[in-house]
Amino acid sequence: MSTIRASEAPPIEETAESTIVPEPVPSAERPQDPYWPQFLNRASDVEIRARFSRELNAAVQIHEAVLSSYCCLALLEAEDNIDSFEADRIYKALSETNSGRDKDVLLIILSGGGSIEPAYQISKICKSFAKNRFIAVIPRRAKSAATLIALGADEIHIGPLGQLGPIDPQLDGLPALGVTQALERLASVAEKHPGSAEMFAAYLQRALTIQQIGYCDRIAESAAQYAERLLSTKVHLVERAGQIARELVYEYKHHGFVIDLAEATTHLGSDWIKGVSPELALAETVYSHFEDVDLWLGMVAQKRIIMVGELKSEPILLKKERR
Questions:
Q1: Which one of 88, 183, 221, 252 is CB 3.0 to 4.6 Å from 257, fit for a cystine?
Q2: Calpha distance 162→214 (Å, rounded)
Q3: Three-state SS for 280?
Q4: Rounded Cα gap, residues 104 and 132, in angstroms
């Protein structure tokens, strides 16, 4: 999250009717548009989306060389999960902007993960629409299913705060592998303490169905298969694809484990993983604008923002869920 200086962001005063933000101290560098917090107090969703796109398009012009070389896409979702909606949006954007495969494809990713099937499809679609190369750029986090998307890229560019993660499928918010490991632990306890077996059986009957327990094993194996298929498209990784896939699915003990630039390079090699590039500089500019606006949306308007599709398209506004 960007650091906000006190001179730029006066304290917010809340009333029962609305959130009122004092006018900021004038600055010669401040744009003509109202400061975002004041703007959000009275702006419609249409106006918010339009201003976001206008400012983002202006900010990225310093990266014109990258913009002209790629069909640039974004999958930026701070809170949402990847599913068929994201796959449809990415396919639509590619069909409309790069149907002739005239450019390589660049996808900027910010995601905590989601379903592995649409993630696999997104990765395959991006590669199939690319003239030669599909580049995945990770300015911050691309976890689990988002990591799977990146595995299909010809290069993965990871920022200083960027991170991939274990490809650990979830079941109703719980890691599938964690469910399996918990069952093994309960079985071990029951074996040592036979009197507890009936209690554990009754608990499991309430918590999980037989179908869900079976699904946990199958979905983890599917994740490894998808990862291996994507990795096998890299000539220098063909022989190790199966091993790397299983490491990414089974080796890490926590769903949120940080696979940063150094860790990713250890697994995948410096030929594939890049730490400094013009593409990453573009992604950092995009992320900075996205994060700043998303912050103010949550604080002032109780809304949030996502970007899925062409980089130049308007974002989507959603109501922020209370935690």
A1: 252
A2: 34
A3: helix
A4: 6
What per-residue confidence (pLDDT) applies to 3? Answer: 43
Average pLDDT for the chain = 83
- Cα separation, 229 vs 78, in Å, equals 27
Q: Please, where are the H alpha helices in 130-248?
A: 145-151, 176-192, 197-207, 210-231, 241-246
Mean pLDDT of all residues in 294-322: 92
Answer yes or no: do 111 and 90 share one domain: yes
CA distances from 14 to 40, 300, 304 (A): 14, 9, 19
User: At 263, which amino acid appears?
Assistant: E
- Distance in angstroms (rounded) separating the CA atoms of residues 244 and 234: 12
Give the domain-ending residue among 226, 253, 280.
253
**Phi and psi based region of residue 92 (left: phi greater than 0; alpha: psi -120 to 50; beta: remaining):** alpha
Mean pLDDT on 32-39: 88
Q: Is the dihedral of CA 100, 75, 54, 68 positive or negative?
A: negative
Domain boundary, last residue among 253, 281, 297 = 253
- Assign 66 to helix, strand or coil: helix
Element (H, E) at 97: helix 84-97
Domain that holds residue 221: 168-253
| CB count in 10 Å sphere of residue 144 | 29
State the Cα–Cα distance between residues 163 and 161, nearest whole angstrom: 7
Written as six digits, the tokens of 156 are 């993965």
Residue 15 phi/psi, 5-degree rounding, is: -120, 170
Residue 183 has pLDDT above 70, yes or no: no
| H or E stretch covering 157 | strand 155-158
Task: Measure CA of the first residue to CA of the last residue in the chain; give whole Å.
Answer: 19
Whether the CB-CB separation of 89 and 308 falls below 8 Å is answered with yes
- Overall pTM > 0.85: no
- Which pLDDT does position 192 carry in this prediction? 63
Instruction: Please check the confidence at residue 8 and state whether its pLDDT lies above 60.
Output: no
